[in-house]
Design brief:
Keywords: Golgi apparatus, Membrane, Repeat. This protein has about 350 residues and is α+β, with helices and mostly antiparallel strands. Helices cover about 20% and strands about 20% of the residues.
């Protein structure tokens, strides 16, 4: 059922026009390398889709580089689209006046490449996925150092080619916000179903979520438009080689880029959540409490009135006196005793 739903949603996504605001024209400059760790840009996950308030609709890297040089000595504003949560943020970066470079390696790439991911769901015990250390529901398979995976069947074809030999995979964990390299040994003799031994999800329902360290959106805010985040750029020592800033766009005839460019970003420890605004001191409520003695007297008085209205005898009154002596016996006559009337009849 879920596979059919995923195919239906994917078909709807494919029918949508490519110039909608949500997919930013379906293309952008993917960040392949970041030489400055102080710059809040993640390789593989982040795409530059806008500059100085305008969307990038031209794949010519010279136009983008010239726009950055024009901002030398001042600040350039980049629109960054992240595959984590499919959100866009504005990044303010100070461009050094001497180099006019950002220290980023970019490539014109369709945004759909980050949709080729597989969500790890159930992981049975003693399966190849369990032995490799895959975590259920929080791990996402991004790719492999051996090449780019295309389509839903790309991973299964790769696994079939590695039956009985090790396979390296790039795996992103949402809970810890880190990417690691996992070595798994596909096998069909482990005692269960599948060569990996785990259930995988693919499609629109299994896209990369936003990290758990990000603050939760308040009611009324949009889901995919994150808040603008600003970051100050610190220039690196020495001018970088600007000729290697852009990598030519991949085509069917050209070979894929070097493997190190495809390595997703290794995230540092998650930043603590920002402290919210200080809450004002609650106004103390003054409540007048009646003394306990007055409440007891009140309840005693009401109980007394209730007893008088119900004519209920009080437990503190003297008990009833015993019956008078010499009077007629109370209760039914005892066995063997004759009644006074019967005695008179015998005397007559």
């Amino acid at each position: 059922m879920f596979n059919a739903l995923n195919r239906f949603i994917s078909r709807l996504d494919g029918d949508a026009p490519a110039t909608t605001k949500e997919n930013h024209g379906a293309f952008g400059f993917q960040v392949l390398r970041n030489t400055n760790l102080q710059l809040a840009v993640e390789p593989w996950f982040d795409f530059v889709v806008g500059i100085n308030g305008r969307m990038i609709d031209d794949s010519d890297p010279r136009l983008f580089a010239q726009e950055v040089r024009n901002c030398a000595g001042s600040t350039v504003v980049l629109g960054i689209w992240s595959a984590k949560g499919q959100r866009t943020r504005a990044l303010h970066i100070a461009v050094p006046a001497d180099t006019g470079s950002l220290g980023l390696t970019l490539q014109w790439t369709p945004l759909s490449v980050v949709s080729n991911i597989w969500h790890v769901l159930d992981v049975p015990a003693n399966s190849p996925a369990d032995v490799a250390g895959l975590l259920p529901y929080s791990d996402y398979i991004l790719g492999t150092p051996e090449g780019v995976l295309h389509g839903e069947g790309g991973l299964s074809e790769l696994v079939e080619d590695h039956i009985g030999r090790p396979l390296q995979l790039y795996v992103y964990n949402n809970e810890y916000n880190v990417t690691r390299e996992v070595t798994i040994h596909p096998s069909r003799d482990w005692g269960g179903e599948g060569a990996l031994g785990c259930v995988l999800g693919y499609g629109a329902l299994h896209r990369l979520p936003a990290p758990l360290s990000e603050p939760v959106h308040a009611p009324g805010e949009t889901l995919f438009d994150g808040d603008s985040a600003q970051s100050q750029f610190v220039p690196t020592s020495g001018p970088p080689d600007f000729s290697n800033t852009f990598i030519p766009a991949a085509t069917t005839a050209s070979p894929p880029p070097p493997a190190d460019f495809l390595v997703p970003a290794q995230m540092v420890a998650a930043q603590p959540l920002p402290a919210g605004p200080p809450r004002g001191k609650k106004k103390e409520r003054h409540v007048h409490h009646a003394p306990v003695e007055m409440m007891d007297d009140y309840f005693k008085e009401q109980e007394k009135k209730s007893r008088e209205l119900d004519n209920a005898p009080s437990g503190r009154l003297t008990p009833l006196p015993p019956p008078p002596k010499g009077g007629p016996p109370r209760g039914p006559p005892k066995a063997g005793a004759s009644s006074p009337g019967k005695a008179n009849e015998d005397e007559d």
